[in-house]
Amino acid sequence: MTKGPGASVYMPPEASAPAKSNAQKSKYDSSIDVFSLGVVAIFTIGEVFPCDPLEPNYLNDETGLLVARTELQRRSEYMRHVNEQLRACGQLRGDHPLIRLIQQCLHNGPHKRPSIREVLRLLEEARAGARDSGWEEVQAAQTQPRSQSLERDLQSHVQELHQQLQSRNQENADLHSSVQELHFRNQAKDRELAEAQQQLRQKEEELARQGAELTRAEETTR
């Protein structure tokens, strides 16, 4: 799972600027990886490297003001290649699930992007839609291997991200368990130290008492 900004072409808006503090770094989560998946999907399906030269803002002719582009607007030229490739495969029939998936992954708002599990579900829906449309039977000899390869690549990438997320969660759980164990050990050490100090005080008091008795006995014999 991404823990900080990487290559700018794969990064969403919230990661485009350097983190100002550790608190800001902690906001990086799997939504960044989902955004990167949308970029990888453009590269995989559209066969173009999605390095957008457009500025993040554009001049509105009506108001004369600079308006922020959404990520989909900035990458619209590359989405056109995705449409063309799906059309060439005979899969583009209206609002294709893969198009919707990429659009959702590239949403500007991190909380509006699908989770890893939702991405897996959408990929399964896209595959089921291809089967139900009858396209697989018609284009099997020519385009089915390519289509399935694209979906396998995307699904493999998503599963890898999901496994990384599970691994990181397990690492956090193991770390939490280690911290708790260390805390318990420290408590046990503290108890042992307190008991040793108590025994030492008791011995010191016993020695002081014996010394006092010895002094009195010597004074009596004089």
TrEMBL record:
GO cellular component labels: cytoplasm; nucleus
Protein's GO biological process: mitotic DNA damage checkpoint signaling
Gene Ontology MF terms: ATP binding; protein serine/threonine kinase activity
Boundaries of every Protein kinase domain copy: 1-127
Superkingdom field: Eukaryota
Region (Disordered): 1-23, 166-222
Basic and acidic residues bias spans: 182-194
InterPro entries: Kinase-like_dom_sf, Prot_kinase_dom
Compositional bias segments (type: Polar residues): 166-180
Protein name: Protein kinase domain-containing protein
